[in-house]
Amino acid sequence: MTETSIWQQILDYSHRADPYPLYAELRKTPVVRAEDGSYVVSTYREIVALLHDPRLSSDRRNLPECDADAPAQDSEEDPAGLPPPFIQTDPPEHDRSRRLLTWNFGPPHRPGRIDSLIPHMFEIVTSEIDDLAGQNRSATTRVDIVDDFAYPFPVTVICQLLGVPRDDEQRFQAMSDAVVKAGDPTTGGIAERERRRAKARADLGRYFAELLDTRHGQPGDDLLSELIGGDGPEAPMPYEQVLSNAALLLVAGHETTVNLITNGMLTLLRHPQVLDRLRRGDEPDLAARVVEERLRYEPPVQFLANSRATLDDIEVAGTTIPAGSPVTLVLAAGSRDPDFVPDPDRFDPDREHNEHLGFGGGLHYCFGAPLARPETQIALTELAHRLKNPRLVADPPPYRRSPSLRGPRHLLVEIEGINPARQRPP
Fold first, then answer.
1. What's the CA gap between 137 and 132, in Å, rounded?
2. Per-residue CA distances from 267 to 111, 131, 286, 293, 333 (Å)
3. Which of 423 and 393 is assigned the larger pLDDT?
């Protein structure tokens, strides 16, 4: 009988609720070769070094075929002729696309865009919490933090930011789910998953093309309109790149934040003393520290599965990863590396130094971090203030299938009503 490797156990759904003991075992060998031929890197310093190494390509067109059972890729572009989104390219292509997106997205060029969304974020959160207990605000009620709160909130925000009708959610969610599933290494070989990912992104690209056609040259004040309109240096972004990157932002703009909020609430319920501190509201910077520690302690993206390829031989922790190899960076394992952070398995928002890999690193550092941070801070703060005596119905809760985009599928919580809405904090 063949022994199951640590990496296979991590991918197995039976360990989804708590993969961290397995990550500790994985770190004992900083670089391991997985069954599909890819190299898995799990220690903090090695991950950081690779995230800054130009010999590690993010362009999926450089990924070899490692699963002999999967058919080869047959195109360098998506079925609809879309180029890859910017996070799947290397400099200088990556740098130009990111500059164009950043110019229109927010800080430092458009600092007011995210700031202007904060009052609306607060309104959305207030409305959703009002709805949690229905009309009877004093009765014991069971709510699902995922379906009733953590999912609709970031979806509404990213739709407003991009200029996507919120009523289209049912249409684009199926395509978004297909993109997420294609990133799950348990759902097939690399080439097979890349084809499915490309098809889903092409479908999203066609959706955005239809959306732009309906505007008939009448742009709005949303990000999509500004990218097409061509504001800023090096503008405008080519039309096909707008479609490709809009598809990326729509998926990434809510899928990871759902997990960040849900995992955050689960952690607070497991650490009631921190929940009480957040509820009291006498530590103005506590919400920010809670979110940063959450990103380290239990990040929404556990690892980047086969998302990089070596352009040259690279020596990592005494192991040579040959040129042309796919590489998986296990961010969640790196952020709990005891050689980098003391007492890593303890949730402690009072850590003096809290560097983490929750948003990745290097030139591909998470583009949406300036949006995800305030979304999560507002969500967790308001849940802490307004839910009366919240308690978990099941611990652990049921988890989503994906081992990489890890979070509860449902988070059932019993509450004894809700407190009145507060005025928006200054």
1. 9
2. 31, 23, 15, 10, 18
3. 393
Peptide bond into 21 cis (omega under 30): no
Contact 158, 254 (CB under 8 A): yes
Cβ count near 98 (within 10 Å): 20
Look up residue 281 and give its amino acid: G
Query: What average pLDDT does the segment 262-273 reach?
Result: 97
Q: Which pLDDT score is estimated for 289?
A: 97
- Name the residue with tokens 């999509």: 224
Alpha helices for 133-189 (secondary structure H): 145, 152-162, 169-182
- The answer to whether the CB of 175 falls within 8 A of the CB of 200 is yes
Question: What are the φ and ψ backbone dihedral angles of 32, each rounded to 5 degrees?
Answer: -125, 150
Identify the CA nearest to 333 among candidates 304, 310, 306: 304
Q: What is the pLDDT averaged over residues 266-283?
A: 96
**With contact defined as beta carbons under 8 Å apart, do 379 and 263 qualify?**
no
| Rounded-to-integer distance, Cα 138 and Cα 417, Å | 4
